[in-house]
Each structure stands twice: as C-alpha cells, then as structure tokens.
Design a protein that fits this description.
Blueprint lengths: L2 H13 L3 H22 L3 H18 L12 H23 L1
C-alpha cells in the first residue's frame, strides 16, 4: 500500500471512530508536530497541550478532511492544526495580559 493510501485509510477509519487508527496517525506524525509545538510554545506543558488539541480535532473532525490534488497531506493538516492552536493560545494569553 502506498503512503497516501495508508493515510487515507487511517483518516477513513478515524471517521468510523477506530481508536487504533488515531493512534497510528499519532505515531506517524507526533514527532514533527511536537518539534513544531516546542518552537511555538513557552514550555513543554503548552507544547503537549497543543499536540493534544490537534489530535483531538483530528478525531472529532476527520470527516472534514478531504484529500484533493494540490490539497493538504495529512502531515500538513496536523502541523497546520498545531500552528492554529499555538496562535490561538498566544492570542488568548495576550488578551488576558
């Protein structure tokens, strides 16, 4: 099976609420996601929270992922979610200050 097919299958299985599929996606992408989260956050606790939120979003919204030519690969989607939640956290921290 080709990488694209494997990841498409994992997303489809997440839509079907297969926790093993989410675990497999996590294992495939957590390294890059965590490295990004560490550069965007103030500490490891916040980085972990960003990762948790990103993968929770994948679990909750896997049905919204659509792979089309020129569209997001799964890794791009994961990293985009980490970036989004980091910006949101920064915005909320700034707003509270």
């Amino acid at each position: 099976m080709e990488l694209v097919e494997i990841e498409r299958d994992l997303i489809d299985r997440c839509v079907q609420r297969d926790p093993v599929a989410l675990s497999d996606l996590y294992d495939r992408h957590v390294g890059h996601a965590y490295a990004l989260a560490l550069t965007l956050s103030t500490d490891t606790a916040q980085a972990n929270a960003l990762i948790e939120r990103a993968f929770l979003t994948i679990w909750e919204r896997a049905d919204r992922y659509r792979e089309r030519p020129g569209q997001l690969e799964v890794r791009t989607w994961v990293l985009g979610l980490v970036r989004y939640y980091a910006k949101l956290a920064h915005h909320n921290d700034t707003k509270r200050s």
